[in-house]
Amino acid sequence: MSKQTQIKDNKKADCTRQSNQSASETTNSQPKGNESMSSLALSFNDVTFNPVAQNDGQIWLTSTELAKALGYSRTDKVSNLYNAHKDEFTDSMATTLELGVVRKTGKVVMPVRVFSLRGCHLLAMFAKTEVAKQFRKWVLDLLDKEVGQPVLTKIDNQQELSSVADRKPLVESVNRLVDETGAIYSNVWKMVHQQFNIESVDQLTKEQVKQAIAYIHSLFIVAVKTSKTQKAVNIEHIQAMYLLGENKTNENYELLNKLQHIINDLDYFAGLVRKNTATQLSAFKSIEHQFTGFIA
After folding, report:
1. Would you list the domain boundaries of the chain?
2. Residue 245 phi/psi, 5° resolution?
């Protein structure tokens, strides 16, 4: 082998090693797609979640684990909650998957309902357990990591917060909630501040504005459902009171009729007494002179 040929081979080998090293570094430095979020060990209080891997890059949690996290003793509580409001869930918020489930008899494949983080948040809006509010905040923190942080990483140096124009749809949502439910305007904004741990709405990022709008919409849905339920209760109460009043009125009429009969009977007997008294008086008068002569 000539010296020139050996030099060419050495250069070719060096290029191959550099190419392999560069590819290896690129692979190690890139995020691992869905694994970055879906494979995280998520835990809320004493409940550890096992996220279900999907191709959409979202975190999906099973109804069984959600029931435990929300403080329910039975899984069907979550199912019942979902079924009562399923028209408000989209396919990107809740779905059913065929998953392996461990039973006493062994592992079986069966349909399991799973919820994305947005689905979890909406589900927790309807839950009335003591930890529901805390769970909603935990979910929003996860949404910030899943959706908010990748966006903020690109604009971190610019500190791009939401503008007045960005927040206009949020203001409109708040106004609608106040107008149609009678909520107090300042209290609604306080709830937004508490939900996102801010002191002023101008601290909201663009992504958080979207989340805040979704939060206001969820409050509106709950308020409307509560109002409809209250109206139904009021109507039923009015109907019940009307029927009760009608029944009592009829009873009073019956009592008045009976009383009238009694009065009529009393008049009749009073007439008999007067007639008998008059007859007795007349009889006494007719024999009065006989008693007078006898006494004299």
Report:
1. 26-159, 161-266
2. -65, -40
CA–CA separation, 2 and 22 (whole Å)? 31
Distance between alpha carbon 117 and the CA centroid of its chain, in Å?
Answer: 15
Cα dihedral value 107, 123, 145, 150, nearest 10? 100
Residue 252: predicted pLDDT: 82
Six-digit token pair at 115? 């919820």
Give the Cα separation of 68 and 48 in Å (integer). Answer: 10
Instruction: Answer whether 109's CB lies under 8 Å from 99's CB.
Output: yes
Between helix 117-126 and helix 76-84 the angle, nearest 10°, is 90
Token pair belonging to 284: 């006494």
Cα separation, 223 vs 108, in Å, equals 41
What one-letter code names the amino acid at 162? S
pLDDT along the chain (296 residues), means of 10: 48 47 36 40 83 78 91 89 89 86 73 90 90 91 65 40 88 88 87 87 87 88 70 57 73 83 84 83 75 58
Q: Is 55 in contact with 34 (CB distance < 8 Å)?
A: yes
Query: For residue 120, how far is the Cα from the chain centroid?
Result: 11
pLDDT in tens, 250-271: 788 788 888 888 888 888 888 8
Which position has the token pair 């010296």? 3
What single DSSP character describes residue 87? Answer: G
Structure tokens of 116?
């994305």
pLDDT tens-digit readout, 154-167? 334 334 688 888 89
Q: Residue by residue, what is the 3-state secondary structure of 233-261? A: HHHHHHHHHHHHHHHHHHHHHHHHHHHHH
